[in-house]
Amino acid sequence: MTDSARNNLFEDLVGSFLYCEGTKLVFESFFGKACSFSNNDVLLAIDFIITDVSPAVLGTNIGQTNIPLVKSAWIHSCVQQGKIVDIRPFLWRSCFTFFGLELVFDGVFPGDMEVIELLVSQFHGRIASSISSSTTHFVTYSKESISSYMHKKKHNYKVMIVTPEWMYHSLACFEIRDESMYKLPLRETLPTYEDLLNTRPSCFRDLSICFGKAASSSEEFKLALLTLCDNFGLSVKKNWEDAHVYICHHRYGKEYYRALRVKKTVASFYWLLRVFQTETWIQPLCNPLYLPRVFGGINKLKDMEISCTGFSRRKRDFLAYLISCSGATFQKTLRKSTNILLAQNTSSSKYLAAMDWGITVVNHEWIQDAYRELTVPEADEPKYSVQDGADFKIQPIPYSVFYDMETSRLDYWGNRPSFSPQKLLRELQASSSLVVAIVTGYTSPFSKDFLQRLRKLGIMIVDDYLQCTHLIAPKIVKTKKFLCALPYAKYILQLSWLFACVDANKKLAEEDFVLTEPLAYSNVTISMEETLTAKSNLKHRFLHDTVVLILPSVIPPKKIDIVKEVIQANDGIVTTDRETFNSMFTHTRVEIVKKTADHTIASPNITYSTYDNFIASVLRQSLTPASDPSK
After folding, report:
1. Same domain, 119 and 156
2. Residues in domain BRCT (predicted)?
3. In a domain, 203, yes or no
4. How far apart are CA 312 and CA 46, in angstroms?
């Protein structure tokens, strides 16, 4: 091949930086920009690493990057065929499953989208909000969804329509599964997760992790994660006390608090993916993104707009993700409304404009410290000043510092205390365990003094039903809070319990304040004692493996969003599309109708229920068909 033809062959890759490690090929003759660097700062700007050395024996700096490792055989294949060939078969690492793919998800998707988006992006795939010419896969249970997209775009894009099982199975076994097995209508027999286990060597023998209770809302997604861990030889424990690392989304919740109190190592899903990609056990505190996110974002950063300038692509992506995790808004362009500019040097046009507009300018360490310490550092400190030629450093944090900082924050649950930490700690320990309660059906707001006295007793009033241990109401009510918190609450108590605890200045026994007054609703007498018995073995999975069809013609538009959230809180799948509903024959199917009498000769495999009867079923935590056809 002539030099001219060779240059034309790789013209699409001109500008990509390559790191050549352990190979004798002279890539400068192909690309003209291949280079050999060893420091971590330069690695952040590299797009590919061409190497014939196993990733297991590469240096620490290279091993902990997120850069595709490509075998030199890819270059030979490109030269022989005279074209750029698919790079995926030549990747060293197995965690580039979605390399070069763009996925679009249906709006009705059974899974935790926050973690799924992180997984797909870390496995080098892209997620788009709508279908375009670059889209390769549409993940859905409904053919009508893809048809509506095509009609709007008025283009005939070649997009593979696959079910969510295709994505989960591809993640679990490190390779793209055959799409024909996952097309609609869904086959009755799909590969089991045992079939997806491979024989790759155990990378993490004698090491274990534990997923937090709120780690994922999708059972299918949890199975994919467990299989992924099995394929790497990483043990997954059910009890966090038996694991080396506790993995969770947020720095929040009773489990996280207890794990931290015994100095258990905590980490995020981002850390777990980096462990898989590098096949190296990484210390979570060496990178702020390896720590769980702050729940709801940092309060003082929520309304801030932050931009950056002078950073390479990988550094900018790192900072953008860190900014979003902190709760602030990342802006690609600088505006007069921007609050903070992160700058690498003082020569960029953004820096000069920010100085003219009076925008605060700091270096990248400012946002790292803000994320670690959950506060807004003083921008005028010397360590945050912008200096030309300064290194881009990701500062580690000593575990003792992180532990002291987090335990102090959790002792006060984010509020500035007016009492000593030692006294609060003794009171929390005396209360045996923290109470996270949801209160509903009570219209008068609690005073700040009343809430502070509850906190001293170890009782927190929250709105997040995923974290609640106690559901408190004056009576059985059909509010969204009550229906969503019901499967998670260990106790269902009268409102008087809170006032009695404050009056007695101690946490009283819950058994004396159980909500016992029954409710007659939809020809059914509902008792919370029977509900607690029914849900004792369900583990907030009353509607597990159940898909519920709700139609706007049956349920008023104002109630549809509430019903959706109630179904999802009970681990169910909700859809408004009948074709999607009919295709999910492997699930238990429930359709909410106006009158059950209209469906007496309908499909025997579908449970028909009126809206009132369905709400009664949720209150009872037991699916029962409507007893009154006239309803």
Report:
1. yes
2. 62-92, 93-184, 296-373, 426-515
3. no
4. 10
64/119 same-domain check? no
Q: Exposure of 6 by Cβ count < 10 A (0-12 exposed, 13-18 middle, 19+ buried)?
A: middle
Q: Residue 306 has which token pair?
A: 């932050």
What does the block give as tokens for 51? 């190497």
378 φ, ψ to 5°?
A: -70, 120
- Model-level pTM? 0.47
Burial code (b: 16+ CB inside 10 Å, e: under 16) for 572-586 equals: bbbbbbeebbebbee
Cα–Cα dist 111/114, whole Å: 9
> Within a domain: residue 416?
no
Q: Classify the C-alpha dihedral 310-313-318-320 as positive or negative.
A: positive
Whole domain around residue 170: which residue ranges? Answer: 102-196
DSSP annotation of 295 reads T
Residues 506 and 585 in one domain: no
Query: How many domains does the chain fold into?
Result: 6
Those residues whose C-beta lies under 8 Å from the C-beta of residue 606, and which sit 6 or more positions away, are 589, 590, 591
> What is the mean pLDDT for each group of 10 consecutive residues in the chain (631 residues)?
51 45 41 41 50 48 54 73 70 62 72 68 76 82 61 62 80 74 66 58 70 64 75 81 84 77 81 74 76 78 89 80 86 90 90 92 90 83 86 69 68 41 44 75 82 84 80 90 87 91 89 86 80 73 84 83 85 82 81 71 76 88 57 40
